[in-house]
Amino acid sequence: MAIDRGQIVDEALVLLNEVGIDKLTTRKLAERLGVQQPALYWHFRNKSALLDAVNSEMLARYHIHRLPAAGEDWVDFTYATARSMRRTLLAVRDGARIAAGTRPSTTDFADAECQLKLYVDAGFTAEEALHISISVARYVVGYVLEEQGERERVAEEEGEDGDLDSELSPFPILAEAFRSLEKEGSINTEQAFERGLRYMVDGMRLSLDAKG
Question: What's the pTM?
């Protein structure tokens, strides 16, 4: 049975959402596709190469704001692309782990060039623009990594919730801070994400203003 690269990646995404990255194996994938493992190696030399393709497909499907829109300024784009990337990683099981461990494709380089041009046109140097792009991407990946890790833990410990208020009672400042993030008995991760992103953008603005 002949099988193409697109079929493999599509089924890998389905399997990833079912079992997670640790249990996603080429053996299981081959069984799902009804082929022998060597058929996969014709397209992907190993699991890492397969995950690179899965990451590219994940971004292509869900990351709707990878590039600046016509006339969009760098501040609006930074917020929009960070939010879009977070939604993308949350849309796929272990999405942050996939993104953190894969290599960029030629398409990723072309998109990065467009992003950097926006920052350079705003007054940042090419080096500064690259550092901004890397910092924002790694902030999002790291943030979602924590979110998805907590989601897995909550699923495993269902019914074993502790009393956070009691645990924090000896630490009044921390308790007050956590109250501002509480949402229906859990932490408002959306609010925390937005705060962190705003601090980053504010710092970028100050850096640009200092250049005069």
Answer: 0.87
